[in-house]
């Protein structure tokens, strides 16, 4: 089994954490979609990571890969057996991924020359991050689908999203007035799967 991706991608980290939590042996192929010589399109026509190659089949898009891994390797369970609750977990996963999407737009926008950066784009994406984190805080505070006694896919996705915010220093004050999220990420970052997937260069 091969996981194609970048060490700095939060979506790749999410899949790496799932693989480690499930004890699945895999080979990591470091491929950045932003390099001219990138081979990512050989695995995903959209040129995005992660992609997972297993038994001659390639799976791409992190929610799809996560669902496939849960189907193939149900232990430990990261999605509830109840279909409606599982959808709630997947929706929180999508919310966390959306926070990552907004942060990635900010990072790319800030790489442009200052005179070419769009203030409207930056404001819009920062609002998405704030609203997304507020919703995740409410869910983590409730503790029924997120931040419960057993970790699930939503917990992993949320911790990866906040790890990405920390890594890129996009929202340095994310923890202000969000104690439930702080509790969640502190718990998640102590797990071996997260310790082994810290992006290079992270302090």
Automatic annotation (TrEMBL):
The GST N-terminal domain, residue ranges: 1-77
PANTHER family for the chain: MALEYLACETOACETATE ISOMERASE (PTHR42673:SF4)
SUPFAM superfamilies given in the database record: GST C-terminal domain-like, Thioredoxin-like
Name listed for the protein in its UniProt record: Putative GST-like protein YibF
GO BP terms: glutathione metabolic process; L-phenylalanine catabolic process
Lineage summary: Bacteria, Pseudomonadati, Pseudomonadota, Gammaproteobacteria, Enterobacterales
GST C-terminal domain residues: 82-203
A GO term for molecular function: maleylacetoacetate isomerase activity
Natural source organism: Duffyella gerundensis
Name of encoding gene: yibF
Alphabetized Gene3D superfamilies for the sequence: 1.20.1050.10, Glutaredoxin
């Amino acid at each position: 089994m091969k996981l194609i991706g970048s060490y700095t991608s939060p979506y790749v980290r999410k899949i790496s954490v799932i693989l480690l939590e499930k004890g699945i042996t895999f080979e990591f192929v470091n491929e950045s979609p932003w390099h001219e010589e990138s081979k990512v399109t050989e695995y995903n026509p959209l040129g995005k990571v992660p992609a997972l190659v297993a038994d001659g089949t390639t799976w791409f898009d992190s929610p799809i890969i996560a669902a496939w891994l849960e189907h193939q390797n149900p232990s430990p369970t990261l999605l509830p057996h109840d279909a409606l609750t599982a959808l709630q977990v997947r929706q929180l996963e999508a919310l966390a991924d959306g926070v990552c999407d907004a942060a990635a737009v900010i990072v790319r926008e800030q790489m442009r020359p200052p005179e070419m950066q769009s203030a409207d784009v930056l404001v819009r994406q920062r609002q998405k991050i704030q609203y997304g984190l507020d919703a995740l805080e409410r869910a983590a505070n409730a503790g029924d689908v997120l931040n419960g006694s057993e970790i699930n896919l939503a917990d992993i996705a949320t911790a990866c999203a906040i790890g990405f915010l920390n890594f890129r220093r996009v929202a340095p004050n994310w923890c202000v007035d969000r104690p439930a999220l702080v509790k969640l990420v502190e718990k998640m970052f102590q797990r071996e799967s997260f310790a082994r997937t810290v992006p290079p260069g992270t302090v």
